[in-house]
């Protein structure tokens, strides 16, 4: 039976200490704390990084005042007791200056996740992350799903879910609604799947 947020595995402060220690001792390991449960993220492969690079270039071309911050820890969920590490967060270039490892998501315009080949991808990327990002009020959640060869754009956060979800197969254009306002041509994503 899964642990509930009202009966967490540990306190948020204990998680932050554990995540800090793990990051400094085990290169590439990223920990998250969602619904009171400890989650680990697998090491990222080269194609995963290439997808984030591709998206970074597009965002910079359209919004030079913004930056796609990779791996920025965010305080998520209602009450901000959860901790998530999106693959990238679109925000002003100075949005997180002076902040610690975990930032308030208020400045984030879009959270981005690129699926890896983890056994828990369905639960984490397709179920938990849309919910916690919506709860946090992040306007757009972009899921680049390499397992399904699809791009899902979640928008209009309304409490515990996004009210609008648009999914397209790789090769089709997809519009990222305001405040992002960019149309992605996804054909190139076919090069970065297994």
Short description:
By secondary structure, the protein is α+β, with helices and mostly antiparallel strands. It has three helices and 13 strands.
Key attributes of the depicted protein:
single chain; 194 residues; alpha+beta; tt1808, chain A; 6-stranded mixed β-sheet; 3 helices; 13 strands; globular
Helix and strand layout, with pairings?
Blueprint: H1 12-25, E1 30-34, E2 37-41, H2 46-62, E3 66-70, E4 73-76, E5 82-84, E6 88-92, E7 102-103, E8 110-114, H3 121-135, E9 140-145, E10 150-157, E11 162-169, E12 173-176, E13 182-185
Parallel strand pairs: 4-7, 8-9
Antiparallel strand pairs: 1-2, 3-6, 4-5, 6-8, 9-10, 10-11, 12-13
Q: Give the helices and strands as they follow along the chain.
A: HEEHEEEEEEHEEEEE
- CATH architect. name: Alpha-Beta Complex
Give the strand order of the largest sheet, numbering strands 1, 2, ... along the chain.
3-6-8-9-10-11
Helical fraction? 10-25%
Number of helices: 3
Global outline = globular
- State the major sheet: 6 strands, mixed
Mind telling me the CATH class? Alpha Beta
How much is the average pLDDT?
86
C-alpha Rg (nearest Å): 16 Å
Q: Could you tell me how far the N terminus lies from the C terminus, measured between alpha carbons in angstroms?
A: 33 Å
List how many beta strands DSSP finds.
13
CATH topology: tt1808, chain A
Please report which band the strand proportion falls in: under 5%, 5-15%, 15-25%, 25-35%, 35-45% or over 45%. Answer: 25-35%
Superfamily (CATH H level) name: tt1808, chain A
Structural class determined from secondary elements: alpha+beta
Uncertain segments: 1-5
Number of domains: 1
């Amino acid at each position: 039976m899964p642990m509930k947020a009202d009966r967490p595995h540990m306190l948020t402060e204990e998680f932050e200490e554990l995540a800090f220690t793990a990051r400094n001792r085990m290169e590439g390991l990223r920990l998250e704390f969602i619904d009171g449960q400890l989650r680990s993220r697998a090491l990222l492969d080269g194609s995963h990084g290439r997808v984030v690079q591709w998206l970074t270039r597009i965002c910079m071309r359209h919004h030079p005042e913004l930056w796609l911050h990779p791996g920025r820890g965010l305080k998520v969920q209602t009450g901000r007791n959860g901790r998530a590490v999106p693959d990238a967060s679109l925000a002003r270039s100075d949005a997180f200056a002076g902040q610690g490892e975990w930032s308030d998501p208020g400045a984030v315009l879009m959270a981005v996740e690129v699926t890896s080949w983890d056994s828990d991808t369905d639960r984490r990327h397709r179920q938990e992350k849309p919910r916690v990002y919506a709860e946090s009020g992040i306007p757009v959640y972009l899921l680049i799903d390499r397992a399904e060869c699809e791009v899902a754009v979640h928008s209009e956060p309304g409490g515990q879910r996004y009210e609008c979800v648009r999914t397209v197969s790789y090769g089709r254009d997809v519009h990222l609604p305001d405040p992002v306002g960019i149309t992605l041509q996804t054909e190139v994503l076919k090069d970065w799947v297994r």
